[in-house]
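Let's sit down with a protein and look at its sequence and fold side by side. Go ahead whenever you are ready, and we will take it from there.
>
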Amino acid sequence: MSIQGQRVVVTGASSGIGLVTARELAKAGAHVVLACRSEAKTQPILEDLQRQFGPNAASYLPLDLSSFTSVRRATQRLLSDGTPIKLLVNNAGVASQRGLTEDGFEMTFGTNHLGHFLFTLPLLPLLKEAGDARVVTVASRAHRDARRIDFDVLRDSTPTYTGLREYAVSKLANVLFASELAKRVAPHGIASVSLHPGVVATDVWRRIPEPFAKLSKLVMISEEDGAKTTLHCCFSDEVRTANGAYFNKSRVETPSKLARDPALAQKLWERSERWTDLRWSDIDLD
């Protein structure tokens, strides 16, 4: 897929594989919207991309996925501008952050899934307008560790010490969301896929307590290697015929049995609509 001269959006682009992804997209001639929480952290990245690839290479969009208010404000800014979006990369995520979001959801689930759900849906008309657009959601093989989604506890503060169980649930939600979204947007010329980037040495793991952090780092790969599957999903024509698929090592891979459960995907979607007060019927794709 060519993105020369197109607008693309990358969440969590100020570090890690999000930064590598943004840099490669800018290098390919796109205007990259860096949708990030911290302006201070993003500003040097923005200036570097503009210096390397031109003043129109990138722009900054304030986005805190743990806050529905921030997410709605960000989508409204993009909608008000009206420029079509060729590619949306839902990359941002947290791990081992305990507590509740601003809106009262378990921190990891509320940020990794609900934040992206609320961010993605309003932008679909801009993706449709771009034509042959796609949504790429960075999940994880950790989704395989989730044994279920207990919808009754997602309004409670993170119960476990490491937060890894909650991370697995949030990544399962990412895969389910991407596949369910694919079914809904395929008739409108939009593709949706999810992926496992590898166990990458990024800031997302900075809150994991010892000794878990030391053990994890023994098997982690570089940010550059971690971004390869994301970039494959951004550029490869294979995505057109693999709508709804889950990728690992730049190849389609069968996700967990739970991730392939259409009833669970539907239930998650319905709960997400209710929790974010955003209905599919509110999205004008006609």
